[in-house]
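Morning, I've got a small favour to ask if you have a moment. I've been staring at a protein lately and its backbone has me curious. You're getting the sequence in one-letter code plus the fold written as tokens. I've dropped the whole record in just underneath, so have a look:
=====
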Amino acid sequence: MTPATGAADDDAFRGAVRDDETLTDTVPVGAAAIGVTDRRLLVRQGADVRAVDLTNVRAVRRRTLQDRGRLSAGLQWGGLAAVLVGARAFAPLEGLVAPVEPPPGGGFEALYAAVAVLVEAFRYLDEAFLAVALLAIAWAGWHLVAFYRTREDVLEITVAGADPVRLPPPGDPTDVDRLRGAVDARSRAGTE
């Protein structure tokens, strides 16, 4: 743990540190800064400072945020495509396209004409399954690409009873370990 000695660190948290507190460590995180006092964790984003009692800090970690709904939709559309391709490969669609001839003198010519049109449409059922399967694959691919493109790495500080603090991850991975160590050391000191 490195004590905060720089004037820039003191300026970042001026007015946020109470008279009975000591700023013990600061970690720059992009445009934000995190300060650890002997009692609280201070997060400065622009002009706003969020203060959290160290006893309420549960975890400091790097995390990837992602929209699992897109992943689920992509897998479902991919599953539909697999079912359609499987049905096309294994279902006997040729039996549906046998011509239907009306019996001589049986009447119902209009009904048999409608059935003949339906049978003719079934001739394209194989291609329809393939076309819908290709569309489902494309839609599944779009959802999966969107899932991977919207993933976001963040530094997350979970807080008991409140929303977590989420910031862009620091450029130096050791800063997360340093911050975690500072928070853990101060949390343990506060409970003794």
Notes: Strands lie at 23-29, 32-37, 40-45, 48-53, 57-65, 152-159, 165-167. Residues 121 and 173 are 62 Å apart (CA to CA). The chain has a mean pLDDT of 80.
